[in-house]
Amino acid sequence: MVQPSRLMAKDLFVSFGKTPVLKELFVTIPDGQLTVIVGPNACGKSTLLRSLARLQSVHKGQVILDGKAIHAQNSRSVARRLAILPQMPTAPEGLSVRDLVTRGRTPHQSALRQWSKADAHAVDQALELTGMTHNASRPLNALSGGQRQRAWIAMALAQETDILLLDEPTTYLDLPHQIELLTLVQRLNRETGHTVAMVLHDINLASRFADHIIALKDGRVRRSGTPAEVITETTMDQVFALPCSVIADPVHGTPHVIPS
Asked: Cys-Cys crosslink for 255: which of 56, 135, 195, 231, Cβ 3.0 to 4.6 Å?
């Protein structure tokens, strides 16, 4: 018997004022895979990710985490199973990388449970996994954009959740740093088994790195599946209004979009 995915949305409806953003949306995030959410601007990508993380109020439907409505669950319990890195996160001036990553342990702290060896180990491991150990004492504002994103991902990893949501993690990074960061995320998924869902704008990078792609348009899922199933000339036209050719990437074999 196939077990249902740990994270999904059912009949989700979200609006900002009188403007609907997500409309009766059904989404499943496959366990242990790297999922990328794509779509044109203002189609609801970030709103979907925030809704999955319980950061966004929903007007109808529900997000299900481990078989239960996420809004009915204890916040600390959710934070021990699901971490989200929002767009362009900010931190206090002068905060060091290690201090930032340490904040990922907050869901594991309480009046009865203070800092422990397990917390220190989680922070050290997160720094090591992201290649940030040698930068641990440096202030965030002294790092490059790519290094800062690695530090934020390390904070999310220190939270020790099985599910990681990333909202446009490559924003403002040049192409080499985008590929470096996505390679890191893919490696984390492969080596640690994290379920990852992230929003990306670059279709070819989504195709290259994703196991599963969800294509949104006007607040609804228009197509979901493997890159080969989603990244087609028909889907590009229907979702992005983009006439194009889709060929096999000569290096990676994944679908590659060439605009007409």
From this structure: 231
Give the chain's domains with CATH numbers: 1-81+161-232 (3.40.50.300), 92-107+114-160 (no CATH)
Tell me the DSSP string of the chain.
-PPPPSEEEEEEEEEETTEEEEEEEEEEE-TTSEEEEE-STTSSHHHHHHHHTT-S--SEEEEEETTEEGGGS-HHHHHTTEEEE-SS----TT-BHHHHHHGGGGGG--SS--S-HHHHHHHHHHHHHTT-GGGTTSBGGGS-HHHHHHHHHHHHHHT--SEEEEESTTTT--HHHHHHHHHHHHHHHHHH--EEEEE-S-HHHHHHH-SEEEEEETTEEEEEE-HHHHSSHHHHHHHH---EEEEE-TTT-SEEEEE-
Q: What is the pLDDT of residues 168-217, one digit of tens each?
A: 999 888 999 999 999 999 999 999 899 999 999 999 999 999 999 999 99
Give 139: exposed, middle or buried? Use CB within 10 Å, 0-12, 13-18, 19+. Answer: middle
Alpha-carbon gap, residue 229 to 232, rounded angstroms? 7
Question: Residues 6 or more apart from 61 whose CB is under 8 A from it?
Answer: 9, 10, 11, 12, 13, 24, 25
38: β partners: 215
pTM of the model: 0.92
pLDDT per position as a tens digit, 117-141: 899 999 999 999 999 999 999 999 9
